[in-house]
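Justification of computing resources. Each target in the renewal requires a structure prediction run like the one illustrated here; the chain below, 181 residues long, is used simply to show the kind of job we budget for.
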Amino acid sequence: QGCSDLPELTGRGRVAARLTAQSLAGSGISLVVSSPLRRALDTAQEILDEFRREGLPVPELKTDDRLKEIDLPEWQGLPFAEVKNRFPEQHQVWMSEPHRLRMRPEFGGTAFPVLDLFEQARLFWKDLLSNHNVNQVLLVAHGGSGRALISTAVAVGPARFHSLQLSHGGITAIEFFRSAA
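Resulting structure tokens:
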């Protein structure tokens, strides 16, 4: 799926989002930041709608492009079996050394999708953590961007991109401690 905005959130995904909201009840979330891609934004809306139904405070919703899914322009819309057949060398690099994967974006040049994703995550954390008014934040992202966010938060490099697996509708909690000034 990558950065495509074509796939919609399924009925099963909507149920998972409502269950996630119920699990987060009482957690004190003050802000929800979502990828602007429709499937993530719809997930965030389902969570907020469930908060409303449960009579819980409804946090502000913002979107951030840095939470978008990994951009794999040459593979977008293709099943992985077809990617493996049509792009065997790239697929091998993806599986064994994801941080070395190179692709040609639409606008030309060369991109390193995993390295670019990790840089997005690093910049996102830098901005979010510099905002001292934000405490409990819910991020609604994608599998790849979620792995990059967790990895950068715990100092795992892009070479280990495939070492974390996230489930749809899963919850990962990360606690950052602010240093005393």
